[in-house]
Amino acid sequence: MNGELPISFPLPIMITDERNIIIDFNQYVTGVQFPPIQKGKSINRLFDRLQPSGEFHIAFYNRYKYLIVSTKLDSYKQARFLHILLDGDHYVDLLDKIKELEMNRYNLSELNERNDELNEKLRQCQDLNALYKTQLEQIETKLSKDSEVVVKSEKMDGIFRLVERLANIDIPVLVQGEPGVGKDVLIRHLYRVSNRYETGKLIKVNCGEVPNELLEWELFGSELDMTSRAPGMIELADKGFLFLDKVEKLSLELQGKLLRVLGENKFQKGRESEERKIDVRVLVATQKDLKRMVEAGTFREDLYNWLRGVPVVVPPLRERKEDIFPLVHYYQTQINRKYELLKSFDESLKKFFYEHHWSGNVRELAHLLERLMLTTDSNELTVSDLPREYREEPQSTEQILREVEPLKDVVEHAERRVLMLAAQKYQTTYQIAKQLGTSQATVVRKMQKYDIKIK
């Protein structure tokens, strides 16, 4: 039995199957007063009579009486039973030992079951740990690719999570927002976390920088001579992304051509008669309300419906102030590292960063920080280091209202601030009047009233 059963236990032991057919027995069985035992024979035929007695059996053979303690062995592949035979003189003394043996076997079985449960939980923990490790590696990979992504506000966090869900879905994404809010950063992030990052490029076309006559060549390519041609941006974006910035600048004619190519995913090279399939995913950014342009007849409705697969609106920086300090820290670190500086900002300047209106959004913030850090001698910058136009900027409406001044004083204060800024920027009262949308005579009168002179 190779030690799997207590066959060497110094008591007569037999092993049977469910039908009481003998499978094995030990040497002590031969000393029992009944006919010789043989494998394959039924244990029932060894005794004159078997009498049930609770959880035991009493066996009779001639004048001898035996107690049979039977135990089912779950460790066997098939059901088997262990029978211990005790003569009448010893079974009372040894019964406790047998029960102890049985209890130990039960406890061992219970421990084995518990061990199996713990092993299963360990396996689950190992699987979960592997999953967390993979997710952490993915996050670290994204962070290494997207060090320019600086997000703390719930608004922007939700937007970035949305574009990550859209990264591998072939549907156009329309990104809208004021100039400088970070539309390019969002587009680049979408590209970097997508599968197309491995198969193609992110090709950006600024539709507002090139006249429409040249823009058609840039998009669709141009013939250089009879045998060669320059590929267009759409062709270069095959297997990748085509990023159309300021798409509102496209002419109606060019909008129609673009829709045919993108809607059918087909492209005709130069003088070739057959069209070729292309696999381009389109991302669009705009500062305008394309729906209003459609209503005004300056943008094609069919192209608008195709491009706006998933619209994403990036809020201005003034509506997500939680992002201001992380952005300041990011650009401060970048500029210090790039130019080997040790610049820092005092509390008054940090307060200014937080309260400023930032009409130019993140781009304005980045430019101001670089200007400050490169043109100031001191390592700790203060509000007094700000350029003049920032130190004398007009107050925001909220600031003016908080002061609860009389309306007349508020209006005069605002007029004076606006005219002072205009006088610094423009050379003539005619230019100021044109910019402010009023008459030159009004500008001259107001400047005389507030004693403002053009610099």
From TrEMBL:
Gene3D superfamilies: 1.10.8.60, Homeodomain-like (1.10.10.60), P-loop containing nucleotide triphosphate hydrolases (3.40.50.300). The keyword Ion transport does not apply. Residues 149-374 form the Sigma-54 factor interaction domain. GO terms for molecular function: ATP binding; DNA binding. Residues 101-142 form a coiled coil. It comes from the Bacteria. PROSITE patterns: SIGMA54_INTERACT_4. One of its GO terms (biological process) is regulation of DNA-templated transcription. SMART domains: AAA. Keywords: Aromatic hydrocarbons catabolism, ATP-binding, Coiled coil, Nucleotide-binding. Pfam families: AAA_lid_14, HTH_50, Sigma54_activat. The keyword Secreted does not apply. This is HTH-type transcriptional regulatory protein TyrR. It comes from Halalkalibacter krulwichiae. The gene is tyrR.
